[in-house]
């Protein structure tokens, strides 16, 4: 469904350290910085990227927005969150754990990146 997702960052290098750590826990390679100073993470199914806003304004998070990354297990989601906190992110929402909803049981872990964007590791339970 998606070709790419780009989030704004006030400090692309600090965000790269954060995303290299959390995406590395999910098995992805470090991001690649292009000639314009943007950072890209390439996968077979899409691209995740980080950029300073092109309008020159300060980057800010979208209130109500969350970007979810697939985790293969609760343990991987926990390692993902620990890597994020250790690399400039902040835990947010409830502690990692199982939540039940209309789509079944999900193991979720949430973080705010260095620019305040909310990200989540999600593992579908059972």
TrEMBL record:
Protein name: VOC family protein
Stretch forming the signal peptide: none
Organism, as annotated: Cognaticolwellia beringensis
Organism ancestry: Bacteria, Pseudomonadati, Pseudomonadota, Gammaproteobacteria, Alteromonadales
Domain Glyoxalase/fosfomycin resistance/dioxygenase: 3-120
Pfam families found in the cross-reference section: Glyoxalase
């Amino acid at each position: 469904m998606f070709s790419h997702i780009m989030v704004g960052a006030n400090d692309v290098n600090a965000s790269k350290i954060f995303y290299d750590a959390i995406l590395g826990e999910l098995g992805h390679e470090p991001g690649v910085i292009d000639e314009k100073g943007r950072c890209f993470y390439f996968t077979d199914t899409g691209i995740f990227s980080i950029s300073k806003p092109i309008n020159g304004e300060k980057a800010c998070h979208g209130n109500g927005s969350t970007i979810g990354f697939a985790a293969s297990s609760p343990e991987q989601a926990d390692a993902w969150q620990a890597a994020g906190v250790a690399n400039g992110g902040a835990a947010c929402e409830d502690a990692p754990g199982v939540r039940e909803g209309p789509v079944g049981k999900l193991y979720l872990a949430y973080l705010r990146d260095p620019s305040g964007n909310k990200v989540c590791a999600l593992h579908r339970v059972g």
